[in-house]
Amino acid sequence: MRLLVIGGTAFVGRAIVADALARGHKVTTFNRGLTGQDADGVEALRGDRSTDAGLRELTGRSFDAVIDPGGLVPAHVLRTARAELAPFYAFVSTTAVYRSWTTAGTDESAPTWPGVPDEDGDPDLARLGVRKRGCELAVEQTFGPDAAVIARAGMIVGPHDNVGQLPWWLTRIAQGGRVLAPGDPDRGLQLIDVRDLSAFVLDQVEARAGGIHNVVPDEPNTTMGHLVDDCAQATGSTAEAVWVDEGFLFSQGVQPWAELPLWIPDGPATAGFWAVSGASAKAAGLRTRPVAESVRDTWEWLRSGGEVRLTPGAAPFGIAGEKEQQVLTAWDARSVV
Ligand SMILES: NC(=O)c1ccc[n+]([C@@H]2O[C@H](COP(=O)([O-])OP(=O)(O)OC[C@H]3O[C@@H](n4cnc5c(N)ncnc54)[C@H](OP(=O)(O)O)[C@@H]3O)[C@@H](O)[C@H]2O)c1
Predict the structure, then answer these.
(1) Structural domain that includes position 119
(2) 311 and 198 share one domain
(3) Whose CA is closest to 174, among 228, 224, 243, 225?
């Protein structure tokens, strides 16, 4: 197929380009040339999707499908969707479009944030759910339900990660010593490898199968405890995880997610966070690899010089070493009372 990938040089887009080339497709990428290198073997076009004039290089071109992995601004997505470049459009969205995490089994019919398909402006990660829903609407309204696939990805891991949660855990555990670990080691997580997400998107594009899918493993596919063990195994570290009660972490001012990545505190408001329904993607052919493989390959990438290059506007993850030690010391003192 002749595929146009908007972006294609960071994380998800990069994986889609690599897989598409491996499948023998003819790939054109379109980006500003700021974020990363285009893969060998693509036709690389330059432009800025944020203005009409920026799409000039695409004028008159036609493809079998447009793949839009990184769209963050609805008006930008609307512009590419309306550019009459292809009869099929694939958009990578996020489960952050859902309004609530109170129940397990959130499927594609659950209420979403009210996005606006022509909302313009700079990317705004603080309003990610609203913005991505606006992007989805831009695609849905232009292509209809049958000629567009919307892949609502859950937490993505794997090589070239540009968010940084798993890389932080790997790097911290590789340093060794006593590692502050959040809450219950048996808390389930749902992680999707970027290569499995990419394969799913390409499978739908090749089949021209429209639809909306949560792209998550059908069931939680690891636990926080197993993930920490996988990180120790991959890095060959003898670090000792110290599992600290969530209430105690709060009392010490430790921030969930931001300071201890992937930590979503247990409670009624978050009961469904790591239990999203992946039934529709599974039925459409999603295959997922073991998390240990994602962990190993991410470490291999970091070890061979890979660096997390954060999406513009994103904050880095991880607790400061000094604060971690203070919390561990306080936890030890509390434990012996
Ligand atoms: N990480 C997660 O856990 C997670 C979870 C759920 C969903 N997601 C979604 O997954 C997607 C990840 O995308 P990605 O960043 O990995 O995609 P990507 O396609 O690999 O990278 C983003 C691309 O967009 C290009 N770009 C940015 N602004 C542009 C502009 N104005 N005009 C043209 N090109 C532009 C960048 O290149 P230049 O800067 O050189 O232009 C870059 O190539 C996001 O949509 C995110 O919301 C992520």
Answers:
(1) 2-157+190-215
(2) no
(3) 228
Q: Which atom of ligand 1 is nearest to the CA of 31?
A: 34
| Ligand 1, CB within 6 Å, residue ranges | 7-14, 31-35, 48-50, 69-70, 92, 94, 132, 153, 155-156, 162-163, 311
When pLDDT is averaged across residues 161-165 and rounded to a whole number, the result is 96
User: Do residues 172 and 197 both lie within one domain?
Assistant: no
**Residue 122 counted as domain residue:** yes
Kindly tell me if the per-residue pLDDT of 96 is higher than 90.
yes
Residue 232 has pLDDT above 90, yes or no: yes
132 and 23 both lie in a single domain? yes
DSSP 125: G
How many structural domains compose the chain? 2
Is the residue at 283 inside a domain? no
Beta-sheet strands, E only, within the chain = 2-6, 26-31, 43-46, 65-68, 89-94, 148-153, 155-157, 178-182, 188-189, 191-193, 211-215, 222-223, 240-244
- What CATH code is carried by the domain that includes residue 239? 3.90.25
**Confidence band for 335, pLDDT divided at 50, 70 and 90:** low
How far is C-alpha 167 from the chain's CA centre?
Answer: 13
Q: How many Å lie between the centroid of ligand 1 and the Cα of residue 144?
A: 23
What pLDDT does residue 7 have? 98
Whether 259 and 196 map to the same domain: the answer is no
Mean model confidence pLDDT for the chain: 97
**Pairing relationship of beta strands 222-223 and 155-157 according to DSSP bridges:** unpaired
